[in-house]
Task: inverse folding
């Protein structure tokens, strides 16, 4: 209430705040509406990669040329705004800077060992204008702290292109850039991946500004080190209790860390060795998160950045922490993932990356995402740091389906995450409830993630989770109280919904070779309707539906998804397929979901989710008997789960 009063007082004293906000809303609405009417997939041929260095250069130049030709204003010598789904809360000029800076990432790798004036000139002029205090486009006038993030891309590019780019500026222009970076470096950041952005301010000042910032750099590296949890993974918050682990590991911690190794001098050699070893561990695990179609398991904020996380592989090869024997697998993942996105609608009708996952999906974005946010994907082209004679380029891409391989099951010991990958490299990830984000539950608060099926991004009934219906509003599981792991793979999670006092949930998650099994005990404070959803089924046609007394199964030409629910103390019960959603592969998806009622007290729900291709699918049997649940799986055989005093189910064989 106090904050609301203060805001009203500010608006009265500074009426321009209200005017700016109204103008922002109107402009955003108009632009997003026009974009929706005009947006479609790119209709021309896209030069996808084939494993050669030349093909990566050709594709990157194609992407950068589209940005420059559409956005660079030769008269103003600066980038201009374009239509998009909308602007971030930082304002559209900050979004223009975001597009400039993030596309400069790609331009840097294109210019690294050769000059291309048609690309270098627009970026050189834009940086000259953006750091000039006399210019109307001076970056200092951007109020948002988002410029700290984007500054890092500018700083990295100028350090990497010192001879061919930086030295082309006059002494006064260099001083303008140094003064701007020095002033911005004083701003504080959160204790998360943002510390890397501030660190590169200081590294720039040290390398190109002849300022000693060694103590500050080491202090920041020490703060980043506190977020390390082992196994190559960093926690992305400043709290040791918070379990936020997402794919920012691949596009920040294991991108900027290796860049530090390349750009910092020998005074930091001790830190460089630590960074390299952690990169080695991360790449070893991250390779397990890819499907046969070379798509990784995506979760969290990183989805909008598409293949930015592939940067960790490029840096791993560049720093020599990935063995030569793994080159063919790494090359298949990098090229296959990039091509999959480009062939499935990642580019809009103008040839720009759309805001979304594959096709444009506005509700995938965070409030801070602007039109250039997706261009972090160009980090993947750091693979061009490898010279033409590097053996990586002579390695053939690993063929898919070239023989059976053992199922890989990986547990990251430092954090409760279990990764299961079958012989087709299709994976499931059980996160143990550690990926908790209260302000965007669609992307974070799933019990499990898969790269076999696409994500459900519709906010009505999210895929693979609970939605409680209370007083006409939807309430999602939003708080993890604690999570633990047993026997390396079975997870126990205690959770709740903050807006429903007295509601407590206890979930046991068990990975199966064909999917996973979830057993829930929910203590309800009152009679409460709920909907539980399973994995979606991608399909262009209406799938076949099989109904049973306690299960629903969706079948398409390729996949089967089954949801089985056994609920005690229910007053009514029903299954239904979720109506089709627009989803991530430019197709429709259908989701099996069950609706029922919780009653006061303990409610036990057992769900089985299996994802399989038609030719190998066999349903599992679930038998409820008192305090135990028996599960007969076609691959694992008979398993027994016994309820403990803490309302968890424990796995026994």
Result:
């Amino acid at each position: 209430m106090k904050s609301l009063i203060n805001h009203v007082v500010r608006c009265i004293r500074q009426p321009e705040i209200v005017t700016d906000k109204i103008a922002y809303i109107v402009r955003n609405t108009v632009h997003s509406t026009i974009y929706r009417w005009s947006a479609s997939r790119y209709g021309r041929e896209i030069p996808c990669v084939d494993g050669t260095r030349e093909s990566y250069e050709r594709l990157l130049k194609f992407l950068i040329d589209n940005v420059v030709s559409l956005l660079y204003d030769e008269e103003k010598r600066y980038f201009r705004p374009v239509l998009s789904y909308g602007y971030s809360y930082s304002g559209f000029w900050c979004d223009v800077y975001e597009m400039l800076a993030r596309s400069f990432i790609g331009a840097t790798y294109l210019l690294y060992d050769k000059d291309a004036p048609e690309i270098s000139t627009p970026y050189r002029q834009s940086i000259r204008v953006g750091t000039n205090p006399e210019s109307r486009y001076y970056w200092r006038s951007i109020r948002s702290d988002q410029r700290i993030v984007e500054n890092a891309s500018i700083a990295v590019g100028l350090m990497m292109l010192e001879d061919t780019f930086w030295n082309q500026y006059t002494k006064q222009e260099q001083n303008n850039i140094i003064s701007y970076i020095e002033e911005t470096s004083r701003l504080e950041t959160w204790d998360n991946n943002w510390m890397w952005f501030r660190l590169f301010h200081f590294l720039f000042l040290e390398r190109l500004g002849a300022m000693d910032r060694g103590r500050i750099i080491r202090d920041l590296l020490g703060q980043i080190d506190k977020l390390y949890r082992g196994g190559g993974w960093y926690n992305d918050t400043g709290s040791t209790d918070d379990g936020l682990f997402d794919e920012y590991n691949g596009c920040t911690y294991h991108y900027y860390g290796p860049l530090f190794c390349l750009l910092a001098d020998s005074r930091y050699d001790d830190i460089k060795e630590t960074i390299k070893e952690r990169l080695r561990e991360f790449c070893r695990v991250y390779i397990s998160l890819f499907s046969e179609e070379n798509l990784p398991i995506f979760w969290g904020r990183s989805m909008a950045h598409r293949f930015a996380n592939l940067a960790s592989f490029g840096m791993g090869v560049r720093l020599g922490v990935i063995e030569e024997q793994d080159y063919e697998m790494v090359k298949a993942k990098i090229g296959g993932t990039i091509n999959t996105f480009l062939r499935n609608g990642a580019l809009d009708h103008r040839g720009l990356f759309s805001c979304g996952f594959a096709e444009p999906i506005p509700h995938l974005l965070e409030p801070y995402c602007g039109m250039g946010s997706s261009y972090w994907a160009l980090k993947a082209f750091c693979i061009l740091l490898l010279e033409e004679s590097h053996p990586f380029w002579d390695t053939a891409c690993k063929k898919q389906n070239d023989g059976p391989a053992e199922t890989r099951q990986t547990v990251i010991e430092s954090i409760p995450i279990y990764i299961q990958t079958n012989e087709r490299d299709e994976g499931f990830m059980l996160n143990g409830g550690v990926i908790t984000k209260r302000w965007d539950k669609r992307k974070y608060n799933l019990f499990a993630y898969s790269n076999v099926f696409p994500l459900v991004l519709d906010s009505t009934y999210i895929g693979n989770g609970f939605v409680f219906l209370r007083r006409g509003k939807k309430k999602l599981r939003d708080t993890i109280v604690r999570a633990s792991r047993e026997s390396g793979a079975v997870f126990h999670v205690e959770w709740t919904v903050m807006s429903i006092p007295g509601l407590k949930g206890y979930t046991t998650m068990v990975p199966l070779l064909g999917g996973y099994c979830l057993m829930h005990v929910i203590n309800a404070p009152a009679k409460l309707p709920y909907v539980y959803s399973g994995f979606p089924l991608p399909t262009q046609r209406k799938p076949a539906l099989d109904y049973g007394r306690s299960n629903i199964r969706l079948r398409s030409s390729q996949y089967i998804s089954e949801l089985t629910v056994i609920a005690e103390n229910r007053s009514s019960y029903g299954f239904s397929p979720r109506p089709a959603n627009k989803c991530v592969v430019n197709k429709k998806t259908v989701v099996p979901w069950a609706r029922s009622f919780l009653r006061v007290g303990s409610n036990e729900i057992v769900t089985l989710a299996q994802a399989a291709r038609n030719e190998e699918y066999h349903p599992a049997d679930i038998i409820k008997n008192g305090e135990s649940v028996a599960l007969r799986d076609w691959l694992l055989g008979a398993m027994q789960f016994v309820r403990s005093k803490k309302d968890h189910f424990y796995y026994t064989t």
Observations:
- The radius of gyration is 26 Å.
